[in-house]
Design a protein that fits this description.
Blueprint lengths: L6 E4 L3 H12 L4 E5 L14 E4 L6 H21 L4 E2 L3 E5 L11 H12 L3 E5 H7 L7 E5 L3 E4 H14 L3 E4 L3 E7 L2 E6 L2 E5 L2 E3 L2 H8 L1 H10 L3 E7 L2 E7 L13
Parallel strand pairs: 1-2, 1-13, 2-9
Antiparallel strand pairs: 3-8, 4-8, 5-7, 6-7, 10-11, 11-12, 14-15
The structure holds flavin-adenine dinucleotide.
């Protein structure tokens, strides 16, 4: 059996791979175990594009998204790759459709951006039509530090840099259990066992939805976890970190 790694990451989507990227930067020996294949368009992280935006209705979430934007920029600077299209994102409204502008997503998210001190522009109808002649709207609220993520560029760049950082990625490996072994963790898969000092379970929040609270509670009893909760659009999302794992690397902004 190979010597213990510092970190096993379960799930080779953008979250798992960025966790590996940041951990490897700090000198950790990292193994990613992916059930399917990296880059499968059936997973959330792959396809052509995703938007990155800060225009949420929760100030904390907007600031978290902006922190992700900063990390994307750092990633581009370090890898020499261009993965973001910085075109901004604009919410628009028409009085004939929504007479009460104060209740529109455009207006409410604009107020959050202002409160968070993030860059935003207010456009009245004339300004919208002058700058964007193809739009017919009476109000525009521009989230300036926004745009789209070029997913193939992200996937390709991550594959390159994770290889350079010595991160081992194993595809087609299904994890069935995690057991404690003294100070170590034993990750049991259909491709054998992996011993590690720490574990990041990226897919658990999805399993959590499918398998319910009971499994989450059992896992948390087994392994004291640092839990980060993010609330967005009325939904809680969970990120669990076990062991001494750097908690950076969240690059998706939705
Ligand atoms: C259609 C769609 C549109 C979206 N649009 C946006 C957007 O515009 N902007 C934005 O910021 N976000 C958007 N999101 C959300 C964003 O894509 C996700 O939040 C992000 O990609 C999640 O990344 P992830 O790595 O956690 O998940 P995934 O990419 O799903 O990765 C999880 C990985 O874990 C693997 N896995 C699962 N179970 C196991 C197991 N037992 N063992 C090992 N591996 C396992 C899976 O095969 C998968 O590769 C969108 C999502 C979808 C689906």
């Amino acid at each position: 059996m190979s010597p213990p790694s510092d970190l096993v990451v379960l799930g080779g989507g953008v979250m798992g791979r960025f966790t590996a990227y940041h951990a490897a930067e700090r000198g950790a020996r990292v193994v990613i175990l992916e059930r399917g294949r990296v880059g499968d368009p059936m997973t959330a992280s792959y396809g052509r594009t995703r938007s990155f935006r800060n225009d949420y209705l929760d100030t904390g979430y907007a600031l978290l998204a902006h922190e992700a934007f900063r990390l994307w920029g750092e990633f581009e600077a370090r890898t020499g790759a261009e993965v973001l299209v910085r075109c901004g994102a604009m919410n628009i409204a028409r009085r004939s459709v929504t007479p009460d502008f104060a209740g529109t997503y455009a207006e409410m998210s604009h107020a959050v951006l202002q409160e968070a001190g993030l860059e935003t522009q207010s456009l009245d109808g004339d300004e919208v039509r002058r700058r964007f002649p193809f739009l017919d709207a009476d109000l525009g609220r521009l989230d300036v530090d926004a745009g789209v993520v070029n997913l193939p560029a992200v996937t390709e760049t991550l594959t390159r840099v994770l290889g350079e950082r010595g991160v081992q990625t194993l595809e087609g490996v299904e994890t069935t259990a995690v057991e404690r072994d003294g100070d170590l963790l034993r990750v049991i898969t259909d491709g054998g066992e992996f011993v590690t000092r720490s574990l990041v379970d990226i897919w658990l929040r999805q399993s959590h939805v499918h398998l319910g609270h009971e499994r989450l509670r059992r896992l948390e009893q087994l392994f004291p976890a640092h839990r980060v909760q993010v609330r967005s659009a009325g939904l809680w999302r969970y990120y669990l970190f076990w062991g001494d794992v750097p908690s950076q690397g969240a690059n998706a902004s939705q």
